[in-house]
Specification:
3 strands; BolA; Bola family protein; BolA/IbaG_stress_morph_reg; alpha+beta; GMP Synthetase, Chain A, domain 3; BolA-like_sf
Length: 80
């Protein structure tokens, strides 16, 4: 799997205003900005992203994914 493949999978299941994905084919890091994260705790945000990947997390296709998840307002505050 390539970074753009993983990014496309996440975007297909989650409305993203910004997303970057980097990794080595098994270990990934992502920055994800979505209005769907409004009012959600960190664990709920991560669960939402994991849900977009489905079985890929269980079959080791995506071995590890570290995430920074932001609402659009949070992203605006940290990216300035």
């Amino acid at each position: 799997m390539q970074a753009h493949d993983l990014q496309a999978l996440i975007q297909a299941g989650l409305r993203c205003e910004h997303i970057t994905v980097e990794g080595d084919g098994r270990h990934w890091s992502a920055v994800i900005v979505s209005p769907e994260f409004e009012g959600k705790r960190l664990i709920q945000r991560h669960q939402r992203v994991y849900a977009t990947l489905g079985q890929r997390m269980h079959t080791d296709e995506v071995h590890a994914l570290s995430m920074k998840t932001y609402t659009p307002a949070e992203w605006q505050a940290v990216s300035q």
